[in-house]
Amino acid sequence: MSVLQSLIDGIAQGAVFALVAVGIALVFGVLRLVNFAYGELITIGGYTLALTSDWPIPLSLLACLAASVALAVLTERVAFRPLRNAAPATTLVATFAVAFSLEAVWRIAFGVDGRSADVLGGLNRTAISGALDVRWITIVELVLGVALLAALGLLLNRTNIGLQMRAAAADIRTARALGVRADRVITFAFVLAGLLAGVVAMLLTAAAPLVEPTFGLQITIFALVGVVVGGMDNLVSATLGGFALGLANSLLGDILPADERVFLPSFTFLLVIIVLVLRPAGLFRSRSAAGVERV
After folding, report:
1. What's the CA gap between 203 and 248, in Å, rounded?
2. What are the phi and psi torsion angles at 134 (to 5°)?
3. pTM of the model
4. Strand pairing partners for 222?
5. What is the mean pLDDT of each run of 10 residues along the chain (295 residues)?
6. Angle at CA of residue 217, ends 212 and 221, nearest 5°
């Protein structure tokens, strides 16, 4: 495989990881909540695509987005809002509890063998062949990743709700005193996170349509690690961290011999440890900025 081919595939995977990282960082920014249950928003999107695979494609995609957003809002209202003033360790454990509870629900409802969600399987066709082999899904991942991140940047910097989210992220108590409706801002952050999770579910099922109870778990763990590597206190650095980890994971997968790719997560996490030892504040955070800016 050529270096250029590896880079194209790696950048596409990095774009998907970046979308997951943004979803995690948005909620962390306004609520200081590390949401380990984020993968379940991706999983329910995948199962919704499987259940609606015989619907017209636009309706199936809309149902996927709606399911991910609905579960995001439901978990915020039922599980996280009552614990908003609890200790960080308590809310952290709560996210684990929500994740494992929902995974059990998927196992009971859909079994452990997985469901096929072949709604966007046509995107696996080759778009460019020859020296480079590029599938349509690779192009879609790149374009959609850039478009969504740009739209999110515009929303946060050019709209009133974006300004309120940034104010809440900087200091939610002061923002409340100045008239920011915290519940509205936090709910909106969960809605955005759910939308991004639904999009990620579409992209993942287009590349590999089998949806299992742990469908969204692995990419969430990798993206969460990417957020930490990039710097959790800043949305841009967290996004870059997610992108960098996705790119590194893809490139390492291409470099490793086929019989050693089972150790790919080990090599990736070893790289993460080295980065955190050298840059504990985050790979994309300056030491002077650490602890000052949150979104």
Report:
1. 19
2. -115, 125
3. 0.91
4. none
5. 83 93 91 91 97 95 97 95 88 93 95 90 86 89 93 92 86 82 92 97 94 93 87 82 88 83 82 81 65 47
6. 160
